[in-house]
Design brief:
Strand content: 5-15%
Helix content: 40-55%
Largest sheet: 5 strands, parallel
CATH topology: Rossmann fold
InterPro entries: NonGDSL, SGNH_hydro_sf
Strand order of the largest sheet: 2-1-3-4-5
CATH superfamily: SGNH hydrolase
Structural class: alpha/beta
Keywords: Hydrolase, Signal
Protein name: SGNH/GDSL hydrolase family protein
Number of helices: 10
Number of domains: 1
Number of strands: 5
GO molecular function, one term: hydrolase activity
Pfam families: NonGDSL
Shape: globular
Mean pLDDT: 87
Low-confidence stretches: 1-13, 20-27
CATH class: Alpha Beta
Length: 255
């Protein structure tokens, strides 16, 4: 049996990693709506999959660290690494997580400024908005912080790093006690203005609640941890679907 020339190997790896087709809403990501999985091109991820490793930096607040799950291994960033690693093998996937309860966009921007040059990620997933909405912090300042941070990233990394913003998780309590829609709207504006993308965790989780798939707030106390684990796993699957959608539409970055 003849072996492919070494120069062909990155292309063969990329072809295998992108041998993927979007699934129907009923059989992907725990029933997430297909329209929520459609990402714009991700040049950084596409380029990474043409080689041998994919580096992802996650920054956010409580849900990146535990969020009521059975432990760190059950959180959506950890599950995302496992789900993606299985999908894109033999490409290796490394997910670095920097998050802490109560942190805001300003805190995250400082982390990104420190860690992105060191890690040189192909993808940054920035989960934010919940703390700002709960505290009633100025929504315009949050949006400005996002736009400035993404602009700095693009000035250094260009198309080598894709940025995805993740909005708040769906919560009846948060909706009833904060003007969460304003924060979601401004995140959408900030994403469009900065060249980032928005992954709407709020819309996806609301769909799961409305279709009786996953409802953490109404889960019996004895089942809440198990439901939280399932929720984080489903979010990881949905995010993986979103990333693969963007990679499939991607292209190699310009020099």
């Amino acid at each position: 049996m003849s072996l492919a020339p070494a120069s062909w190997l990155p292309l063969l790896v990329l072809a295998g990693a992108l041998a993927w087709t979007p699934a129907r809403a009923t059989d992907v990501a725990c029933g997430a709506p297909v329209e929520a999985m459609e990402a714009a091109p991700m040049a950084g991820v596409f380029a990474a999959l043409s080689h041998t490793d994919l580096r992802i930096l996650v920054v956010g607040s409580a849900s990146t660290q535990g969020g009521g799950t059975s432990g760190r291994a059950a959180t959506w960033p950890e599950r995302l690494q496992s789900v993606l690693a299985e999908r894109v093998a033999p490409v290796t996937v490394a997910v670095e997580v920097f998050g802490r309860r109560g942190t805001t966009a300003s805190d995250h921007a400082r982390i990104l400024a420190e860690q992105a040059p060191r890690l040189r990620p192909h993808l940054i997933i920035w989960q934010l908005g919940t703390v700002e909405a709960a505290r009633g912090l100025p929504v315009e300042e949050m949006a400005e912080t996002v736009q400035e941070a993404v602009a700095r990233l693009h000035a250094v990394r260009g198309e080598r790093t894709d940025v995805v913003l993740m909005d708040p998780q769906f919560s009846r309590f948060l909706r009833g006690n904060a003007d969460v829609d304003s924060y979601r709207d401004w995140l959408r504006i900030a994403a469009a203005a900065s060249g980032a993308q928005l992954f709407s965790r709020w819309a996806i989780m609301r769909h799961w609640v409305e279709t009786d798939r996953l409802d953490l707030e109404r889960a019996p106390t004895a089942q809440r941890v198990a439901v939280a684990d399932r929720l984080h796993d489903c979010l990881a699957q949905a995010m993986a679907e979103f990333i693969m959608s963007g990679a499939q539409r991607g292209r190699l970055p310009r020099n």
